[in-house]
Design a protein that fits this description.
Layout (H helix, E strand, L loop, with lengths): L1 H33 L5 H6 L12 H30 L18 H11 L5 H16 L2 H22 L1 H29 L8 H18 L1 H38 L8
Helix pairs in contact: 1-3, 3-7, 3-9, 4-5, 5-6, 5-9, 6-9, 7-8, 7-9
């Protein structure tokens, strides 16, 4: 079962990765053809007519990485919605009277096993673990302990899933700063040696050109910080939704399985 889950997760992430690359290319192409080549926005968002041969610019690299992170967050959000939907699918009795002994749990375990293939559902894995533990020990406290341990493991699993997103939100600003450093070096190289201070007109033109080039150099940092801030905002929303799904799964398992278990 775990091998099937790993393969399903790998294929989903690969599909999302390729789709994100495709959307990134389309986004860059749309900006390229819709913005004036010599315009202000084209210089900021794409570094058109900048220090790199277009379209090989740091801004475009950042856009590609941005869409990869966005795709990963959309995948996480989609999976958390599936987790929330599992809670409403009625895998366990939800009335006020049903009590469950070990011999009554086989149909529920069979139903969960038939649904769990190819998924990483918190609820389904938790139900199976609790059922197996209770069937083996006939002890409600041990079954409850298994549920608590599963909840902690799933919480750690959520944290691990966001490692790539955290790296991307660090990488984009780093690329922005690298672009700024390169831009500053490029601006100083283009400006050359300053003219004599007595030549006020030449000095003024030199300062104007240097200032303009330095302004372009900071565009990469500006775009990178905006991209990173947006991804961090979405990351917190997505992680909140996944943790909510885990909490609801735990409450459902506690109310409709743990609290119904008994054995003579």
């Amino acid at each position: 079962m775990s091998n099937i889950q790993v393969k399903a997760n790998d294929s989903s992430r690969l599909f999302v990765f390729l789709a994100a690359l495709g959307f990134g290319v389309l986004w860059i192409a749309a900006l390229t053809f819709s913005l004036d080549e010599d315009g202000f926005l084209a210089a900021i968002l794409l570094d058109r007519n900048g220090r790199f041969p277009y379209p090989v610019t740091i801004q475009n690299v950042m856009w590609m990485i941005f869409f990869i992170g966005l795709g990963e967050l959309l995948l996480r959000s989609w999976r958390s919605r599936r987790e929330l939907q599992d809670v409403d699918r009625g895998f366990l009795p939800e009335d006020d009277e049903t009590m469950l002994r070990a011999k009554d749990l086989a149909p529920f375990a069979s139903k969960v096993r038939s649904e769990i293939k190819g998924t990483n559902s918190f609820l389904l894995r938790m139900i199976l673990r609790v059922i197996w533990q209770f069937q083996a020990s006939r002890d409600v406290s041990q079954a409850s302990e298994v549920m608590n341990m599963s909840q902690q493991l799933f919480h750690d699993e959520i944290e691990i899933r966001y490692n790539m997103i955290r790296y991307i939100t660090w990488l984009i600003p780093t690329l922005g700063f690298v672009g700024t450093v390169i831009g500053i070096a490029f601006a100083l190289e283009v400006a050359g040696d300053p003219p004599d201070v007595t030549a006020s007109d030449e000095l003024r033109d030199w300062m104007r050109e240097l200032t303009r080039n330095l302004g372009v150099a900071f565009n990469t940092t500006l775009v990178a910080l905006l991209q990173s801030a947006f991804l961090v905002f979405l990351m917190h929303l997505s992680q909140e939704q996944e943790e909510l799904a885990l909490n609801r799964s735990s409450q459902y398992c506690l109310d409709n399985l743990i609290n119904r278990l008994y054995d003579k």
